[in-house]
Amino acid sequence: MMPAAVVLAGSRGGTDPVAQHAGVSDKALIELGSETMLARVLRALRDAGVADVAVAANGPAVAEEAQRHGARMLPAAAGPSASTAEALAALGAPLLVTTGDHALLRPEWVRSFVADVPAGTDVAVLLARQESVERAAPGSRRTYLRFADGHWSGCNLFLLATPQAEAAVRLWQAVERDRKRPWRIVGRLGPGLLLRYLMGRLSLSEAIAALGRRAGVVATVVECRDGLAAVDVDKPSDLDFVRDHLGKTAART
């Protein structure tokens, strides 16, 4: 049985450059073909077998779109980590977390991710290697985490597998508060692991496991072999890439 899921579709306030580029009020309402980006995400989750889906949003038009597609609504908090904390409190664990701008989300990624999470995990994160991303999404510019075992990009898909994952969300909130002070984020690894990282000897799985231990949870990395899963819509060029990709896919079918 698939866990419940929450789609983070809140606004940080101000003008979103992607929404402005597309001429809509909220990024999640950008139309891709015959449906909105949010509708595509909700459909992918449903097709993966997720029966209970909530959307965390603060825009009335987004709320209307979510409810039109059978999702329950949760008010968005001040940032994605706070919204995730409130969703975990409301829906319980296990809980899948993704975003409203994960426009190319596929049901098979969701099913494989859940199936590949090791037993005993409290929180898991899906990531893809740079070579997989560049092979599947040439021309898409992503941000990579550089570790001894390769360069990795996040896939906007997380599993809060147990109630203990709440501690990891609290750590996420602290990291979010320190996002303009990166030395404090890196410092959470501790001096030994930090030195290994600076020497290029720390793997991603070791770093994630260490951060998990700092929070008192078992945290694991799951590799997604389809690098397309790392594509989300953070900037206008991402939207252009997604539209071009969907157009080419439709032309082949």
Per-chain topology:
Elements (H helix, E strand, L loop, with lengths): L3 E5 L8 H6 L8 E2 L2 E2 H11 L5 E5 L2 H9 L3 E4 L4 H12 L3 E5 L7 H10 L6 E7 H7 L8 E3 L2 E11 L4 H13 L4 H6 L3 H8 L5 H12 L3 E5 L12 H17 L1
Parallel strand pairs: 1-4, 1-6, 4-5, 7-10
Antiparallel strand pairs: 2-3, 6-9, 7-9, 8-9
Helix pairs in contact: 4-7
Q: How would you describe this structure to a colleague?
A:
The protein is α/β, with parallel strands linked by helices and 253 residues long. The protein has one domain: Spore Coat Polysaccharide Biosynthesis Protein SpsA, Chain A (Alpha-Beta Complex), CATH 3.90.550.10. 44% of the residues lie in helices and 19% in strands. The protein is built from 11 helices and 10 strands. Strands 1, 4, 5, 6, 7, 8, 9 and 10 form an 8-stranded mixed beta sheet that branches. The longest helix has 17 residues. The protein is globular and about 50 Å long. The mean pLDDT is 91.
Give the % helix.
40-55%
Rg from alpha-carbon coordinates: 18 Å
CATH H-level superfamily title: Spore Coat Polysaccharide Biosynthesis Protein SpsA, Chain A
In CATH's first tier, which class applies?
Alpha Beta
CATH topology: Spore Coat Polysaccharide Biosynthesis Protein SpsA, Chain A
